[in-house]
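Exam prep: given the inputs below (a chain plus CDM), describe the expected output before reading on.
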Amino acid sequence: MVVFPNAKINIGLNIVEKRQDGFHNIESCFYPVGWSDALEILPADIFSFQSDGINIPGDPATNLCAKAYYMLAADYEFKPVNIYLLKSVPIGAGLGGGSSDAAFTIKALNGLFGLKISLEKQLDYARRLGSDCAFFIENKPVYCFEKGDLFEEISLTLAGKWIVLVNPELHISTAEAYAGIEPLKPETDLRDTLKKPMESWKDVVKNDFEKSLFPKYPVLKEIKESLYNKGAKYAAMSGSGSTLFGIFDEETDLSGIFNQHKVWQGYLK
Ligand SMILES: C[C@](O)(CO)[C@H](O)COP(=O)(O)OP(=O)(O)OC[C@H]1O[C@@H](n2ccc(N)nc2=O)[C@H](O)[C@@H]1O
Ligand SMILES: Nc1ncnc2c1ncn2[C@@H]1O[C@H](COP(=O)(O)OP(=O)(O)OP(=O)(O)O)[C@@H](O)[C@H]1O
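Solution:
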């Protein structure tokens, strides 16, 4: 079985308060984007994990795909598998790439071996692997709250809009980004703001990480300003960085403008 774990962007990201468990309650809108890895899972005699493409730091045995496999193998009976991951989505990029690989491994094993794991249970397994991971189980636009792993439907459709993602190949650790934050309860309701036209989001739909990360990494602010200068209707950083995105009404090829960075562009669904 071959699947294509895609990335996400955060449209608005409010870090509301620090929790007793050390994590933060947040609110955000997750939107799937087409930048994807490729993940092949085949039944085998012994378990193995291999990856190619972008180098993933750390021991392959602790890769989120391997963790997802071992977690399900502890609770269900099925054959070992060979997992082959072709990594294209940048790491430490605010795009949830590793979380998506993990969620797609859960979904693929469930389908391949007919495990009949309910949607709720798949979401619970995903939550155990990371806060972003549960979103990729259903992989549709949602408003998220608490650790970013509880969801509410949102009637936001950006289908047919053009998105440009620019990654300056700066690895920002999620834990480090959260450590630099002073949580603050938002004054406006993100769900209400997102009902208004995209043109009105600038300066209202904010990513709280920008305030602490832009002074530290000026290139992030420069990229966001360039996206607006090139006609983006809305531009922001995704998650804890380092990827910036711009949303345009029409196809706008910016690969030449940002040729010193990694760029992915395409239509939103
Ligand atoms: C920034 C976002 O990408 C926005 O969607 C997510 O909140 C991050 O989700 P993630 O990468 O899946 O993060 P996890 O692997 O669960 O946590 C990594 C670290 O980030 C911090 N963390 C994460 C999520 C959260 N709601 N509060 C936190 O404080 C914690 O220090 C945690 O140890
Ligand atoms: N399949 C995987 N893909 C990417 N990173 C992985 C994977 N499995 C484990 N990891 C580990 O997770 C770390 C990246 O996590 P981190 O949360 O910083 O970034 P991310 O998953 O790219 O997305 P985000 O910044 O949105 O959370 C890497 O340093 C790597 O060691």
